[in-house]
Amino acid sequence: MSAGCHDTGVGAGADLVQVPRVALVGSPNAGKTSVFNGLTGLRARTGNYPGVTVSRFVGSCRVGGQRYVVEDLPGLYGLEPVSPDERITVDVLDGRLEGVPRPDAVLIVVDATTLRRSLGCVAQVLGRGLPACVVVTFTDELARRQGRLDVEALGQALGVPVVAVVGHRGYGVSELRELMGGWRAWTAPALAPPTDPAERDAWVESVLAFADYRAPERHRVTRRVDDVLLHPVWGTLVFFAVMVLFFQTVFTLAAPLQDGVESLFARLAELVAERVGPAWLAGLLGDALIGGVGGVLVFVPQIVLLFLLLALLEGVGYMARAAFVMDRVMARFGLEGRAFVALLSSFACAVPGIMATRTLPSARDRLATMMAAPLMTCSARLPVYVLLIGLLVEPSRKVGPFGAQGLVMFGLYLLGAVSALLAAWVFKRIGDRRGQPVPFYMELPPYRLPAPRAVLVAMWSSARAFLRKCSTVIVGTAVVLWLLLNLPLQSTAHLRAAGVDTGDPVAVSAYSVDHSYAAGLGRAVAPVFEPLGFDWRVNIGVLSAQGARETFVATLGQVAAAEDPEDPARALREMTYSDGPRAGEPVFTAPTVAALLVYFVYALQCMATVAVLRRETGTWRWPVIAFSYLTALAWVMAWLARTVTVLAGG
Amino acid sequence: MGGVQRALAELEPGARGSVSEVVGGEVPAVARRLADLGFVPGAVVEVVRRAPLRDPVVYRVKDYEVCLRRAQAACVYVVEGQP
Ligand SMILES: Nc1nc2c(ncn2[C@@H]2O[C@H](COP(=O)(O)OP(=O)(O)OP(=O)(O)O)[C@@H](O)[C@H]2O)c(=O)[nH]1
Ligand SMILES: [Mg+2]
């Protein structure tokens, strides 16, 4: 998944028949994707967690004029797959994946620090009989932890070419390239490694002895850090401290950056108002693009910050620990630790979260987790929450040392996570009960410094994905909405007849907006949302957010800019109901904002998620179920939130 | 040697043993996977630590660390007290 949000993993590369295909296989977390990136120059996602890559990823590289197709595959512990991601790799190796020819050669990637276990997997892959070369990674860490390996002797013992690399830094990649150029001449093992597990074990020991292997010392830092992070009290405290700190940061540290972006847009809006001639064009640029889309773009810093945090957690090796610590809790909900990691990745975006369920061996667990993943607070909800919390809570309010805004945000994340667990539990209960019990295991790699490149790539690709979304879905929606807000055109005579002071542009635009097609649409759905306290403008916002949640922010920004071009922020704060029983009262009261926030916690307003659910489950049934149950739940919970807030005197 | 054979799930953190037998339970895939993870007869296993809620447990085997739930650790039998 190179491009963060919404990228599902099939890379570029026209597959020509005569181009040799080379596949990367090996244990999870062995460094396959790092080698792949080194060979192809692509930026596929890496991380210190076994199970980062869950789909086939294709790139190409050139060695001396010859093009090679390089395939990155999910890791596996053995060739008898237990989970969907491992099945992909085995199917590719056996040429059983539809439309994908069998690779011509394999690069077997092994982590030098876990060689004693990994050689079992190497033996199994060598047994498949494809031309093979062994790529030994983590040679730097082996040396640092006082281990030893004679790479040349390893090659002799295995009977295939061996090359040592430091994957994430790209050392040794040019040697590997050179070796690839001569793949037709690669030696094959004189004798296939044994297939019986006991004999294979003896074979591994003899290979290790021949290669003068000394296992690395234990990683002391890892043990000490784990003493704290895996401690029942300290571990929990650290986890919540990191989370709270993060939400504080979203509001405080990102605020100056955001102000910068905001004033840039304000300046732009002024320029447009001054320079752009035709009033309609100035309106389109000022309201739809700057007021609407600009309002969403302001959130780039927060999104990047969120992805930075997740990339760091994944890069250091915390994710495997999270799975380990949470496994017992997840078991209460009928799931396992890996499902927690999938849910945690959904903080970025439900799409990679749903993809990550491929690491789950049990089909039922997988389905339950997929149905729950959209409830985790994804980055698309961030702008909506920040906007609405800003309307609800004064920035200066504090609860103890913490900003109240950050705490409300934390509460929303918690609400989403708890709801996700409960939803997963329900779906697991009502699912088919026949499934076999499957083993839970999780390798805990040592803590490592995250590769700076990987972290930068994660941040950059999240920003890029967000910008892309803004420039397509959100711009499109904003322009359509602009038309709906400005049509039909009101003639001066008509305005006069309606008693509008035609000399006052604010009054004119307020009247036109209130009698536009958009208003008609918003009022048409009013019976549905009226009990939640939404007025037609909020309805339009909610409807427009159906494809992508951030659009809500763009829509409200645009409506506000259209009503009062001078000060849209104030227009939003002081917006009142224009008709109905609450006419004249302010819209954004605490009960309405609470209902809106809760609505966004539950509703499935993301077409990308619907599409990935369709693809991963193979039927329309599950996306339809997910959409229906989440929308119904959103309405009910929003109504509850409103009622409770009203009762609490908000 | 001649120690007593015990299920891995019964050992306390800090204990070591050498795997004597891996039984599959009802599911053959479990024994296969445990073997792929390094739990093969003769392998030395050390109990490293328990999760805060006591399950799963981290084991050190074949020079790396892996955690198993109690149900899986109950499939692995070890003879305690190996070097
Ligand atoms: N010190 C060191 N770190 C490495 C090396 N190769 C990869 N890494 C790091 O190890 C981690 C795992 O690398 P990946 O390339 O994601 O491994 P993978 O085999 O693709 O893992 P999965 O896709 O999860 O199976 C990343 O954090 C890398 O930065 C290496 O040679 N030395
Ligand atoms: Mg990978």
TrEMBL record, chain B:
Q: Which InterPro entries does the record associate with it?
A: Fe-transptr_FeoA-like (IPR007167), FeoA (IPR052713), FeoA_core_dom (IPR038157), Transcriptional_repressor_C (IPR008988)
> Does the record bear Iron in its keywords?
yes
Q: Which UniProt keywords apply?
A: Iron
Q: Cross-referenced Pfam families, in alphabetical order? A: FeoA
Coiled coil feature spans: none
| Residue intervals of the Ferrous iron transporter FeoA-like domain | 6-80
The name under which this protein is listed is FeoA family protein
UniProt organism field: Streptomyces fuscus
Provide the taxonomic classification.
Bacteria, Bacillati, Actinomycetota, Actinomycetes, Kitasatosporales
